Structures are given as C-alpha cells and as structure tokens.
Amino acid sequence: MGKFKMALKDFQQVAHKYSLAIDLYTQAIELNSENAVYWANRAFAHTKLEEYGCAILDATKAVEIDPKYSKASLSVSKFGYYRRGAAYLAMGKFKMALKDFQQVKKICPNDLDAAKKLKECEKAVMKLNFEEAIAVPESERRSIVDSIDYRAIDVEPQYASARIENDVVTLDFVKKMMDDFKNQKCLHKRYAYQIVLQTREMLQSLPSLVDLNVPTGKHFTVCGDVHDQFYDLLNIFELNGLPSEDNPYLFNGDTVDRGSFSLEVILTLFSFKCMSPSAIYIARGNHESRSMNKIYGFEGEVKSKLSDKFVELFAEVFCCLPLAHVINEKIFVVHGGLFSVDGVKLSGIRKIDRFCEPPEEDLVVRSHEVKDEGYEIEHDGKLNTVFSAPNYRDQMGNKGAFIVTFTVMEPSRPGFELSAPIGQLLVLQKLDFSSNSLTGTIPDSFQLLKSLIFLALSNNKLHGRFPRGLTGLQNLQYFIMDDNPMFIPLPLEFGHLRKLQELRLANSGYSGTIPPIYSQLTNLSALSLQNNRLTGKIPTAFGNLSHIYHLNLSRNFLGGVVPFNSSFLKRLGRNLDLSSNPGLCLSPSEAFGVNVGIDVCGSNKTASSIRPLKNSESPFQCPKPIILTSFWVFLALHHILFSV
C-alpha cells in the first residue's frame, strides 16, 4: 500500500503523469474498493486527460460510498460531487453540473471555489433557458450562408497578406497564408469567407461515412487531435510533406479549441481541401461543435480575429463534417472509438442525416485521448489510438504522432515486395516487417531512411543484394534479418554503422568470411550469425568488443583458433555459442573452466557441454508468417519549439 498512499498523500508528485496516476489508483481500488478518496482522485486524473465519461463514473462511485463527503483537505484535493460536477461542466452539461455544485454548496457552504463554479453554472443555465425561449423553430431557420456574399467585400489596397486570385485556391496561396500565420498576420475576411464557404459546399456532398481507396504502392497519412497547435501542424507538414493528391492526409477530428491558434489550423486545413479535395480529409470530433467551442476558446478566438457571423458559419460547417472514414474496406477511422451500445452497423452510420454488421474491419483507428508516446496499440493490434498534439496544452509532456499506411498487395497474392515509396518516410525511426512473406530485394530507397533506429525484416523470403547507400543509415541501432534466403557474402557496409547494438543475420545462407571491420562495432551487444555458410577465422579483434553479451557463430564452417581470452569467455558464458564449426578449436591456455562447445586445440576433448539450439528453442524464433494488406507506421514526434 505504500506507493498508493504516496500517490494519495502528495498527488502533485505525479503531476502531468495522469496515466500513471490512474494505474496507481486502479491498483489501490483493487485492494480497497470502499475508499472514496481513491475513486475521486482517479476521477480527477481522468478529467485532466479529458476522459470525462470515466471521470463521471468514478466520481459517482465516490458519491455512493460517501454521499456527504464533497471535499477533503487541500492536500488531498477535491472529491465526490465536486469531481463529477467538474466533469459535467467540462462537457458543457451545465444543468447536470449545477445539481452537483448545489450539493457541494450544501455540504461545504464556505467553499469559495465551489461557490465560483456554482455561479458559473447558474449563469450558463440561465443563458441556455433564455436562448431556448427565443429560439426560432427549426423549420423557420435560415442558413447563415444566405446572408454572406464574399465577392461584395472589398480588399483594401494596403492589404499585404495572402490573396486568392481569380477565386482559385492554389498551393502558392496556401504557402503564403501559412507563412503569414507564422508571423501572426491575419487573413482578409473576404478570403476567409471564400475558403469556409467553398469547404462547406464540398462537405455537404459527402456521406456520413466516407470510403477511401489507397492504390497499391501509395501511402496515406492519418493524424489525430491537433487542436490549436498550429506550429506543430507545420512541423508535421515539414516532416511528412504538404498535403497533395500523392500525399493525402486524414485529420481525425478535434482540429480546434484549447488555445489561440485554432483559426489558423482550421483555415489551413480547409485551404488544402479547397486546393485539392482528395489531398485532405477531415472527420468530426467532439470539439467540432458549438457547445465545445463556447467553452474551450474557438468561439472567442473567431469573434476576436474575424466576426460573430463567422462563429455561426463555422458551426454550420462543422455539422457537415463526416463522422468516420473506412480505408480500403479494412480500416475504420473514427474520432472517439467504437460505440457504447452493441449492434451499431456501418450502414446505420451511412444513413445518419447530419451533415458493426458489427464492424468487420481489420483495424480501428481512433484519436481523442492524450497518449504519452503519441500513440497506443491495444487489443492485439486491432485498436490504434493516435494523438498529434505534442506537449498538449503546454503541460502534458506527451509526444505527438501520425500514422502512415502503405497499400502493398492484393489479399489473393501469396507474397509481395517491399514498396519503394517507403523511402519517403524520412523521419521514420522504427520499422518492423517481420513474418510478412516479403519477396524480392530491399529497395534502394531504404538508404533515404536516415532517422531509422530499428529495422526488422526477419522470417521473410528476401534475397539478393542489400540497398545501395546502406552506410548512410548512421542512426541504425538494431538490424534484425534472420531467416531470409540471402545467399550472398556478409555485407562490409554493416561495419560502418557504428551505432549498431544488435545485428542478427542467422539462418540466411551467408557465405565467405566474417568481415574484420565488424570488430569496429564497439557498441555491439548482440551478434547472431548462426546457421550460415561462413568460412575462415573469427576476426581477432572480436575479443575487444567490450559491450557484447550475446555472440552466436554456431553451425558454420569456421576454422582456426578461437581468438578470445578466458576473461572474454567467462563474461559471455552460456551466451557464447561456437558449436558445430568442425575446424574451430580453443587454445589450451584459455580452456580451463570455460564451456564454449568446441574442442581444445590438439585434443579430442570438448570444452563444453553446450549443445546447439534447436529451431524451437531459439531465443530469436519468429512468429508464424501472416499476410498484411497494409503497412502501418507510427511516427513519434518530440515537441519542437518554434520561434515566431
């Protein structure tokens, strides 16, 4: 219980580590489910992560356990009714929040913070009641669009920012507009009206569920929440390229609110949509709504930078946004996730007037929740969360991420080749294509992946040469490519990748000698070359690899005296396997007290009881092959500060 008491006693010690706090309180609740403090503090953490539904459930449980316990000492923070009221307030459910804060006021009449929240709720409910009283019936409402004629708005001669020529939104205009936004210049109202109205017209023609097709060999990028983080949006474009027909994006909701640059974000996305409708797709999130925009800043920002009329216009346009997308009939992309009730069918989503068969998709992609690494993979890889706003709200310390998918084959094909466009992912750090029935060679475009740290291609059918320019991958630390029919000499180029920590090339038919340059890989911790056709001697300088802890050269045709001293041999112990190399022997002076699986030179005695590992016992055994129809690559982005 010690760590739970610590988390409870000094909650601020885990500030901005709310996921960790939730885990700790969950464990505490499992030990003592009748402690209202645990439930209420977990509700607080859920609220900070904007998981308001979970916060309401936890706060309700706290109220059930101790209905009169609204607030503990300041060091423990706030409980029960207060937590639930705060969650309702954040969701814009003012009437529900009002009831909870009224209860807090009864229990703690001198609580100034609760009194402030109560007054805020009373004001909001009064405004709602007034608006309902004077509201025009739906049948009599006119669209705000009917009152807008942007062509009648004059552009002042002194206006020096981006201009739309001949009513056509071009790439040059969008680039100029983004540069203006970086310098905190505003777009003229005429052009803002044109962009939003043109986007509305396109969105109105779309169904609620949009089907997207990514052709074979092409890629597609999915971004999660970006909110107001305009400079991070620019960072994504810098890393992954601007939206275009050949580089399309899907922004999966929550493009506004939470800061001061939401207008810049949404106008940029809408402008790319106007420039090329197939370059960018936008889904509706919970923040593309009037109620959220009132609370979280977008409404006030639009009024300040443009006008009240734009508030109404954006509210209309947000109602036209699609609710979800399906990529290649396999990947269901929706902002919040799947539904709280069973039996919702995709056909039902298509019929929604807005604007799972339970879903049979192979993958569900959602956003909405902050993730420390910018993404999270759950349910055996079938549920992926992506969040694209790094250091969310300038306080969460999280990374942002986006997803890139490559369509590489038709499902009926028994195997497929790696796609050359993979080389376009210039910021890719981790790539794992193990056990995918890959054929052919590694494309030369891999040499462009300068940021690559981890590459795994094991258990495929790759063969032949390695890509030209392999030595350019100077950030590569892990190269895992066991079990491929390569049948070539070991590449010298690996010896130039000085950051390599693990190199695994077992069971692949490599021939010739072990290049002496491999002994210059001073960071190497694991080298697996077993079950190949290697000949010659073990490079003498291998004994100087001070960081190596696993070395397997078994089942080859190596010969000569093992160049390792007794200190090296003892350090590796059973992590050294030299067995089944008929011409290899151990110096008598180094053989005492060590077991390495080979004979002592000049003797028929074996200095080891180690036997070669069978395939079923191999520590690097690969999973059974599977066939994918798309490759999904997560790109994690550290928060980058921009000067403006």
TrEMBL record:
Identify the species of origin.
Olea europaea subsp. europaea
First-level EC class: hydrolase
The molecular function terms of the Gene Ontology recorded here are: metal ion binding; protein serine/threonine phosphatase activity
Name used for this protein in its record: protein-serine/threonine phosphatase
GO BP: chromatin organization; DNA repair
Cite the Pfam families for this sequence: LRR_1, LRR_8, Metallophos, PPP5, TPR_1
Q: Which cofactor does it need?
A: Mn(2+)
Domain of life of the native organism: Eukaryota
Q: Which GO terms describe its cellular component?
A: chromosome
EC number(s) stated in the UniProt entry for this protein: 3.1.3.16
